[in-house]
Hints:
Elements: E1 3-6, H1 12-21, E2 26-31, E3 36-42, E4 45-51, H2 56-66, H3 72-85, H4 89-95, H5 101-119, E5 126-131, H6 146-160, E6 171-175, H7 185-191, H8 200-207, H9 211-223, E7 227-232, H10 255-272, H11 278-302, E8 324-328, E9 331-335
Amino acid sequence: MALEGSLKDFGLADILQLIYFQRKTGILSLDGKMDRVKLLFVDGNIVGAESKKRLEDNRLGKILLKKGLIREDDLQAVLEEQRSSGARLGTVLIQKRLVEREKIQDIVHAQVTEIVLQLFGWKLGTYEFTAQGVPQDKELPFSLDTQHLLMEGLRIVDELSVIKDKLTLDTLFVRTAAEGVDLSEEERGILSLVDGENDVSTIVDLAGKDNFEVSKVLLALLEKGLIKSKGVAPVAAPAAVSITEKAPPTFLGYLPYLAVAASLLLSLAVVFIQKDDTMNIFSAAKTIDDLRFRIEEYKLRQGAYPQTLSAFTDARDPWGHPYIYSLAGSSFLLKSAGPDMTEGTKDDIY
């Protein structure tokens, strides 16, 4: 099966459905601005994931250390052996009986799930599926139900839309000196994991909760002044794991501050330029995201995309025109004609 193209034209949900329903075995490669990911499939289900940004062995070692499941000197010795043998870190740890199989399986399962779910937020990028045999680790066998993951991904994307501009899985937080603030047990638990080294994705792994739950708590702590953003975690490199290592600052570390500055400028523009369409554009984009979720959910339940939007809504865009919807082969097109109310111009909103 030749399957390649742009995520703008054929979204991840469509790709996963196609691979799942045709029970394909092979590798799906996805290239985005910030990461390169490979998903491994056997009979349509996901059996592994590789991220250039979140190397599994590095993250597994870090989580084991943070959870107190292994000593750092033992981990470094295993990493040396693992690099020379080429075996996976989890496999070596199990063979040496340093960590229980079930604990490693739980961590790896959570990490693979996290890698897949964050892909649902990608709007741009390319993909290519190659049908081929996929070797499975006999020491750490597992399989994720693609259909279940698809539904979970669509749910989380819809929920994360309210916080995606405030933090990402790579955001680092540090504690402030604020005191005397009442916290729930959940907030105290998440706050204890904030140390300036754990990015959001690591906190998710350590907390054993999903992205949305952890992100909501972190935002609450941020609003209460108990934590502040330190920047963005650097891209992982295949080196020995150590909780004492400190990565040099990168340009990425300044992105959150640029985002805050841009947000403030945008707010000022809206206040002082009453005729500006900025808020209308944001409103239309949010509605389109909501409708995309409902359309994908409809297909999962009915087996095909709806012929028209009337099955869901008669909503109009902020300029009073119906949203533009049409079927395009095995996918669909959904957009607003934008402020100029003319379809096909550069201010169309997707």
